[in-house]
């Protein structure tokens, strides 16, 4: 079969969608790269919560008090690799933060208790504590909303690398002047 750039792109997006709905899929976890305080590069793992192919957005949620928020006023990088399918996806995009707005409120209210629990600590992530099990105040579920931040990332660039007998690598850009091209693996 001849190589097909459109099918190659669609496959990557479909795999991302699968990652967002299937906890066992490798793409359920992505690494986000930010420029942190003082210009230092930072990488963190987050759960891929939503992928919308039409709008080319992906989303995750986090604590608004966490250090990663520092880098969210600039483009961020996203990386994920599926060892079973030998597929790597690297993206860049613009984060759009939803905090205490209608979207954040609606999504926070839909969280199951285990997920909401992440936002119920009275102590912010990254704070120095005496021991991992040090007693920490617990907020009511309604109070956790103030800590919850939903982040949509508007993807501007995507690079897909499929390892195989013939490696396939392509670069896609979105928005004005959208483009797609094969590149050397
Ligand atoms: C498997 C896994 C999944 C994670 N998922 C999330 C997530 O969805 N959101 C999040 O904020 N942090 C998540 N984390 C934790 C982050 O990687 C990071 O350690 C934490 O958010 C603290 O980051 P900070 O430096 O911004 O405080 C996850 C970590 C692991 C190992």
What do you see in this structure?
The chain has 185 residues and is an alpha+beta fold. The protein has a single domain, classed as Pnp Oxidase, Chain A (Roll). Helices cover 18% and strands 37% of the residues. The protein has 4 helices and 9 strands, in the order αββββββαααβββ. It has helices at residues 5-21, 102-110, 113-116, 141-144, and strands spanning 29-35, 41-47, 50-52, 57-63, 76-82, 87-98, 148-162, 168-173, 179-182. Strands 1, 2, 3, 4, 5, 6, 7, 8 and 9 form a 9-stranded antiparallel beta sheet that branches. The longest helix is centred in the N-terminal third of the chain and has 17 residues, at 5-21. The radius of gyration is 18 Å and the shape is elongated. The two termini are 19 Å apart. It binds flavin mononucleotide. Residues 29, 44-47, 60, 62-63, 66-68, 125-126 line the site of flavin mononucleotide.
Uncertain stretches: none
Named once each, the bound ligands are: flavin mononucleotide
Number of domains: 1
Give the tally of β-strands: 9
The CATH architecture name reads Roll
Determine the fraction of residues in helical runs and give it as a percent range: 10-25%
Oligomer: single chain
What is the CATH superfamily?
A: Electron Transport, Fmn-binding Protein, Chain A
Largest sheet: 9 strands, antiparallel
**CATH domain fold name:** Pnp Oxidase, Chain A
The helix-strand sequence is: HEEEEEEHHHEEE
The shape, in one word, is: elongated
Work out the strand percent.
35-45%
Structural class: alpha+beta
What is the CATH class designation? Mainly Beta
């Amino acid at each position: 079969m001849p190589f097909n750039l459109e099918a190659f792109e669609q496959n990557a997006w479909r795999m991302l969608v699968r990652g967002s709905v299937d906890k066992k899929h490798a793409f359920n976890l992505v690494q986000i790269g930010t420029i942190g305080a003082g210009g230092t590069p930072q990488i963190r793992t987050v759960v891929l919560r939503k992928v919308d192919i039409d709008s080319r957005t992906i989303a995750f949620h986090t604590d608004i008090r966490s250090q990663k928020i520092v880098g969210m006023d600039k483009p961020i990088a996203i990386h994920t690799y599926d060892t079973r399918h030998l597929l790597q996806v690297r993206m860049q995009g613009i984060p759009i933060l939803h905090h205490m707005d209608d979207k954040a409120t609606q999504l926070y209210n839909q969280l199951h208790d285990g997920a909401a629990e992440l936002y119920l600590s009275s102590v912010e992530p990254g704070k120095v504590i005496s021991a991992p099990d040090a007693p920490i105040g617990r907020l009511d579920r309604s109070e956790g909303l103030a800590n919850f931040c939903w982040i949509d990332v508007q993807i501007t660039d995507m690079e897909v690398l499929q390892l195989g007998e013939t490696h396939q690598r392509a670069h896609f850009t979105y928005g004005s002047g959208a483009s797609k091209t094969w590149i050397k693996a």
